[in-house]
Write a structure and sequence with these properties.
293 residues, alpha/beta, TIM Barrel, 2 domains, seven-stranded mixed β-sheet, 10 helices, globular
Length: 293
């Protein structure tokens, strides 16, 4: 039993609803998935119920946006199996508000650059808890300015290095604060797609801060990077996960649920991780009590 532990629904920047995600997973023979919408826990309970009805195990998850405030580099943390979702809700709300402020400004800039109405852009984001660049691009597609979400128009508007870029970086929470929040919520923190944002340089510090794992199997990761991450994980006793980072029509590449997965052994380790940690803590406590006696 392997699992795709990185899937997005239309609650964030995907194009499929929870029911459609679960149905697609079942049809493709993927027995375990995680819904990891950006800074959004809204679908967690519903996804589990729908998954149970369709024979698909849904692992509670969320992709938390963060930034290394020292460098300004974006870092995303996948959080799984948290005991106290309320402890993460505040962080999600802050990130959501930061994204909304930045996205609204980008939407206005896009509407000035192209004769597209903000109403149409907002219509393209219907069902989402926020506004993402993909929604702006979807509106531009509908108006005939491009025939693809990603390509020259997207790069011109949202590549930070483009001279005509309208991209505005949301003021997300500091990554070390995010890891601490996941820990306080009784969750498991995993560094998402380190190759996508080139987060290799900060890995050691994240581990020291309490990071529990790293996403190895992902569309953005080369075989050489996979090998390097597996070696690093083994050395630092980290969990390793994988997922397709599925967004439906908003995928960067042609990919579907189950194309990238967490292998059976690694999935079992993740699901049993908290029980293992608690067992070790009890053992250490018992040894400490014996020594005091």
């Amino acid at each position: 039993m392997s699992g795709d532990l990185h899937c997005h629904t239309k609650l964030s920047d995907g194009t499929l609803g929870i029911e459609e995600i679960v149905a697609l997973a079942a049809k493709r023979g993927v027995e375990t998935i995680a819904i990891t919408d950006h800074d959004c826990l809204a679908g967690t309970v519903r996804a589990k119920i729908i998954g149970d009805r369709n024979g698909v195990k849904v692992v509670p998850g969320v992709e938390l946006s963060a930034v290394d405030t020292r460098t300004g580099k974006e870092v995303h943390i996948l959080a799984y199996l948290f005991d106290s979702p309320d402890s993460i809700e505040g962080l999600c709300h802050r990130n959501t508000q930061a994204r909304k402020r930045a996205s609204q400004l980008m939407m206005i800039k896009a509407a000035k650059r192209y004769p597209v109405s903000t109403e149409l852009i907002l219509k393209c984001s219907t069902g989402s808890t926020n506004l993402f660049p993909q929604h702006i691009m979807h509106a531009l597609m509908q108006c005939g300015y491009t025939n693809t979400i990603y390509g020259d128009v997207y790069n011109n508007l949202f590549d930070k290095n483009s001279p005509d870029s309208i991209y505005i970086q949301p003021k997300f929470a500091d990554v070390f604060e995010v890891i601490e929040s996941v820990k306080n919520a009784g969750g498991i923190s995993v560094l998402a797609h380190p190759a996508l944002y080139d987060n290799f340089d900060i890995l050691e510090e994240l581990v020291q801060a309490g990071l529990n794992g790293v996403e190895v199997w992902h569309p953005s990761c080369s075989k050489e990077q996979e090998s390097s991450l597996l070696s690093f994980a083994k050395k630092n006793k980290l969990l390793t996960t994988g997922g397709s980072d599925f967004h439906g029509m908003y995928n960067c590449d042609v990919v579907s649920i189950g194309d990238y997965v967490t292998p059976k052994q690694q999935l079992t380790e993740l699901l049993n991780y908290k029980t293992k940690v608690k067992r070790q803590q009890k053992k250490l406590a018992a040894m400490a009590a014996e020594n005091e006696a």
